[in-house]
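Follow-up to my post from last week.
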Amino acid sequence: MLYIGFNRKIFMMELDALDKQLVALLQEDCKKTTKQYADALQLSKTAVYERIRRLERTGVITGYVALLDKSKVNRDFTVLCHIRLVQHTKENVLRFEREILKLEEVSECFHVGGDYDYILKINVEDMKSYREFMITKLTAINNIGNTQSSFVINEVKNTPSVHI
Amino acid sequence: MLYIGFNRKIFMMELDALDKQLVALLQEDCKKTTKQYADALQLSKTAVYERIRRLERTGVITGYVALLDKSKVNRDFTVLCHIRLVQHTKENVLRFEREILKLEEVSECFHVGGDYDYILKINVEDMKSYREFMITKLTAINNIGNTQSSFVINEVKNTPSVHI
DNA sequence: TAAATAATAGAATATTGTTCTAATTTTGAT
DNA sequence: ATCAAAATTAGAACAATATTCTATTATTTA
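User reply:
Got it. Predicted complex:
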């Protein structure tokens, strides 16, 4: 259990086997009816309903979203861009991250250890728009040392879900 | 428009401004009521309902999923793992990808050009389980040359959605 | 072991999704 | 530009589902 502040205990939610099954189903498809999940878990509608509400209330489930076919919306040119900063002062790091958050082309950005400082996933229409993005938006950010772009040839697997 | 096979025309779906707004809303939260989207777009329930059905039917929307707080399910140790293959024959590539698809710890895997051949996103509980994963599962796959692991220090941004 | 708490099932109700009909708008050919 | 055809939309009617409620059962804990 975690202790936060003074005497405020936050318990890690315990997920039993049914919760885990349920979460797995919801990560695959969150639009089925309560009855369908209930049948899969051999529970009543109410039991499943209450479990889902609890998963939401405790923050295990953070939201429900639609997924798109990127090729159908002209955003299937994906690049994994590695970035090194020049200076790593707190101000520089925070400013860089703040600027990155403004860029709609960036769907993921991780601060990492190792060869580079940041790894970004960028979704644009084509190479031309990537070049435009790089020149006018990304490298326009101060303090970027150098970058290395890995162009995605094929998405072998790409899911927002995690196995638990 | 795309021509596939003999005289079979597949039209790229045209998304108007309302479709784009709607898709943006659905990528943020797909569990609102039709009426809520209708109000946001200043349309009737039916209009929105039909637009959503069309987006689904044409494959723009591929599904609806629940998102989890990885820290709440003990999977918030994220690693971006770069992999080089020894040989790049078609058989080797396909076999490697087939093996990767079996690994539940891997949520994303991209075949990329550049320094490395593949970049994987791996979600596990902690460094100990990552080590275990590396030894018993990943490097157990044949034909892997070398790997470079970038450990995630901080998720600046991480969304499955794309801006259109 | 007993009391308290939490989880579950099934029924009742409220809300929302889905279909239907008619009106309106848009498209495409002449 | 004009008209017919097709697609989109609004509002009402209906069907399905979510949500709440009550009682029962299971689980915890003192």
